[in-house]
Design brief:
By secondary structure, this protein is an alpha/beta fold. It contains five helices and five strands; from the N terminus they run E-H-E-H-E-H-E-H-H-E. The protein has a single domain, classed as HUPs (Rossmann fold, 3-Layer(aba) Sandwich). The longest helix has 22 residues. It starts with 5 loop residues before the first strand and ends with a strand. InterPro entries: Rossmann-like_a/b/a_fold, Universal_stress_UspA, UspA. Pfam families: Usp (PF00582).
């Protein structure tokens, strides 16, 4: 952990920004880099039904461009003194985060918890829980 970079997934929420602060502090303490990641959902559609005026690929590309702009804005909020690599991936958030962590041999994942409870917790996929249970490296879940 102490020599490998930190993966910090973000959905650009306030809670995720809080997790980014933790990741930046840890990266500065251990003198490692950060991989700041956002996962864009893969849009669904079928061109045969003529429902969409644009293809799902074009929708995804637009979402990726918007995410890249949000990444720049997020990084401008923090006074980063070390290397921050930004990554935008497409697909299931849990799968993409775990795959990226393994591919790049990250030392730790710092991820935000949205703190859902009750019915909302039951109905929504909890990305932080999925990542924590599937990761092969330490995971810090920030509230």
């Amino acid at each position: 952990m102490r020599t490998r970079q930190i993966l910090c997934p973000t959905d650009f929420s306030e809670t995720a920004s809080h997790a980014v602060r933790y990741a930046l502090e840890m990266a500065a303490f251990y003198h490692v880099g950060i991989r700041l990641m956002h996962v864009v959902d893969q849009p669904m559609g079928n061109e045969n039904y003529q429902i969409l005026a644009i293809t799902p690929e074009e929708v995804a590309e637009g979402m990726e461009q918007a995410a890249a702009e949000k990444m720049k804005l997020l990084l401008s909020e923090f006074n980063c003194q070390h290397a921050v690599e930004t990554v935008i991936r497409r697909g299931s958030a849990i799968e993409q985060i775990l795959e990226d962590a393994e591919q790049h041999h990250v030392g730790m994942i710092v991820i935000a918890s949205h703190g859902r409870t009750g019915l909302s917790h039951f109905l929504h996929t909890n990305v932080a829980e999925g990542v924590a249970s599937g990761a092969k490296c330490p995971v810090l879940v920030v509230k």
